[in-house]
Each structure stands twice: as structure tokens, then as C-alpha cells.
């Protein structure tokens, strides 16, 4: 596959993934779709890793990769898209950092667990913080969280989604990094029409 087509394919994959991360992070901000618990969000939610890291920082390389896969700077591919490929290399490096940030925060959020009301009156804490993620496989421990209802399943689903998508984004940004470097040195392999 030529570098231009590969860049376009990677870009078209990165854009929906970044939008998935943004939506997942927005949903994490409203446990169970309700806003009455927003003052008790966990640190991992407040870091906005899906919005900033897996979202905006990956959206830019996606757009840059699509542009690198387009026609050349002069409109007919005269430079082989070398300048656009160089731009996509830098954007992909930033995207890889963003995806890595999202992946690490999501994995830590899964391991630590949500912040929830554990006892009355009003003791908000991280009941699974020292469980090393063992609460994930033992749903009988989930009763320790009184409010928000079903917050563990909510966080588990969305943080797992963020972790998987950001891992894929990291791979695709790495592919575009290599592809972009090849495109800078070799040019676009497409023929002029």
C-alpha cells in the first residue's frame, strides 16, 4: 500500500476513535446519566484523559493523516506530499502521547475503582483502591458502593472502552509515524494523473 493511501486509511480510523473517547469521557462525567453526583467524581474522571488525550490530541493527527493522503501541496502531487507527511509525523507523535495518556489513566481508573458513597452519613471514598483490581472479577464487593447506583458497572464499561480504543489509537499513531517518515523520504507512490 502506498504511503498516501495508508495515511488516509489511518486518518479515517483515528477520527471516529477520537470521537468515541470524547463521548465516553463526557459520559464518565455524569454517572448513570445524572448530574447530581458530579461533585464526587473520581480523580481519574477529572483528568479528562478521554477528552484531551484520546480525543483532541488524536483528532488532530487523524485530520493531518487524511490531509497527507490527499493531493500534493501544489495540487498535483509534485512534491509527493513530503511536507504534509512531515506534518503528519509530528502530529502522530503528539497523538501517540495523547493515546498513551488516555490508556494509562483509564487503566489506573480501572484498577483503583470509582469514588462512591460507602457508608452513611456521607463518607465518599475509593473502597477498592487497595484491591489491585480484584473487585473487577468479584461482583459481590460492588455492594460497598451505595451511591451513585451502578457506578462500578458505569465506570468499568467506560474506562474499559477508553483503554481499548486508546490502545488502538496508540498503534495507529505509531503506524502513521513510520508511514509518515517513509512518505517524507520516499514521497507518495501514487502516479501523477
From TrEMBL:
Membrane topology: Multi-pass membrane protein
UniProt subcellular location: Membrane
Keywords for this protein: Membrane, Transmembrane, Transmembrane helix
Keyword Transmembrane helix applies: yes
UniProt xrefs under InterPro entries: L6_membrane
Statement: the UniProt record of this protein carries the keyword DNA damage: no
Family: Belongs to the L6 tetraspanin family.
Protein name listed in UniProt: Zinc finger MYND-type containing 15
Organism, scientific name: Vombatus ursinus
Gene name of the record: ZMYND15
